[in-house]
Every structure is written in C-alpha cells, then in structure tokens.
Amino acid sequence: MAFDIARDQGLACTAPQIFATGTNLVVGLDGPFILKIFPPMHRAQFVSERGSLAELCGRLRVPIPEIVCEGEHNQWPYLVMTRLPGILGAEAWPALPEEGKLRVLAQLGETIAEVQHVPPGRLLDIEPRWDAFMRGQIEGCRARHERLGLPQKFLNGLDELLRDAAALIPLDAPPVILTGEYIPENFLLSCERRVGAFGTD
After folding, report:
1. Is residue 99 part of a domain?
2. Could you say which DSSP state residue 127 is in?
3. What is the CATH number of the domain that holds 73?
4. pLDDT in tens, 60-97
5. Domain range spanning residue 133?
6. For the chain, what is the radius of gyration of the CA atoms?
C-alpha cells in the first residue's frame, strides 16, 4: 500500500523504512518525507492528527512535521509529512546524563504549555467534546477496571473516588489542545536544536 500511495503522489519510495513504534503504519519514504497510514477503524485519529498539525503549524518553538499531502487509499486515510531530524527519544534517553534528562523534561513542559496556548480552532468540531468525554470516562470507569481484573482492594474505594471526580475535574474549562503523545517514542532529540515533538507515532 505504501508503494501505491507514494506512486500516486509522485514520491520516491525505493527503500522504505518501517517505524516499529506507534499504533498506525508509519513509513519513511525516500528523502525528507514520512507516510502515515491509518486503518479505517482509526479514522478519528487521522482527523485529529491532521487537524492538530494544521493548527500548530508555525506556532511552536519546536519543529513539528508539516503536512505535504493527504488522501485515502482503499478507505485507509493517510498523511505525508516532512521528516524531522534527530534521534528517537526512547533510544537517546538511556544514554543522557541526568542534567540532559532534566533539560529535555523542561523543554517538554514548555512545549506542552505552548501547545495549550494555541487556539484549538477546527479541532473544536471533533467529537466527543471534553465534558462528554470525561463524563463517559467516569461512568465507564468501574466496569472497565472490573473487566480488566483490577484487584478487589482497589475496587473497594473506587466508587467514592468516582463520586468526587466530576467535582475535581474541570468539565467546563476553556478548551485547549490536549494530547497524551508526549512519550519517548514520539519525540526526537538533537544536540543542535530543541526537542522535536510528534516525530513518528
């Protein structure tokens, strides 16, 4: 499929590089391009990632991929993005001295704050909205943990925590861009520049 998409878009793909991390198929094409293919069941991820990259483009101090083109192949949506330089955080982290790790964590914190200052724009059209999402999480929490086998000693106090959750979690706060993708598999590190976010996943 990657070869077909590359051909359709006029991009060279003579030696594709498959990235093992991530939930979707990510392929390094020839030159400075990355192809990310989303299964039909992950279409919401495609919409979210496309929208996030568009809203954040040019608004952060760290480099992020730019969308080169997008499309759909046999109902599988895809994005072609620019490839960022650097070493995958998961590979670089073990060799970093403690001072370097603290610098990276500080830069990640700064990046998270910057992202949350960018107006969500068209991302506000994506369902579910925050309040509905959190209410659903709270309502389904106990059943999910029972299904996954949480030990009874933790289930015993869960109902009390869930009763307080709606009051403790702000459900009507001003909307910001949130993501749980700030993990070592998703950022690139370089000695010459700051952290590059949203690298490969």
Report:
1. no
2. S
3. 3.30.200.20
4. 999 999 999 999 999 999 999 999 999 989 999 999 99
5. 127-174
6. 19
Helix axes 158-168, 130-147, angle to 10 degrees: 170
The pTM score is 0.82
Sign of CA dihedral 107, 110, 112, 117: negative
- Tens-place pLDDT, residues 130-153: 999 999 999 999 999 999 999 999
- Evaluate whether residue 6 is within a structural domain: yes
Backbone dihedral region of 182: left (phi > 0), alpha (psi from -120 to 50 degrees) or beta? beta
With residues binned 3-state (H G I as helix, E B as strand, rest as coil), the percentages for the chain, rounded to 5, are 45, 15, 40
Report the number of secondary-structure helices (H) and strands (E) in the chain: 7, 7
Q: Note whether 45 and 79 are within 8 A (CB).
A: no
Q: Is the pLDDT of residue 22 over 80?
A: no
> How many Å apart are CA 115 and CA 117, to the nearest integer?
5
